[in-house]
Amino acid sequence: GLQSPRRLVSGGDRMMQLFVGVCSVVTSVTFLHVTTSHCFHTSSSFTNKQDFYEVLGVSRTASQKDIKKAYYQLAKKYHPDTNPDDPEAKEKFAKLAEAYEVLSDEVKRKQYDTYGAAGFDPSRAGAGQQQYYRAGTSIDPEELFRKIFGEFTGGRGFGDIHNVFEQRPEFVMELTFSEAAKGASKELSVNIDDVCPRCDGKGSEPGTKVSHCHYCNGTGMESINTGPFMMRTSCRRCGGKGSIIITPCALCRGSGQTKKRQTVTVPVPAGVEHGQTVRMSVGTKEILITFRVQRSPVFRRNGVDIHSDILISIAQAILGGTATAQGLYETISIVIPPSCQADQVIRLHGKGIRRMNSYSYGDHYVHIKIRVPKKLTRRQRSLLLSYAEEETDVQGTVNGVSPSAGKKHHGKGRKDIR
Question: Which region ranges are annotated with the description Disordered (predicted)?
Answer without folding.
Answer: 396-418
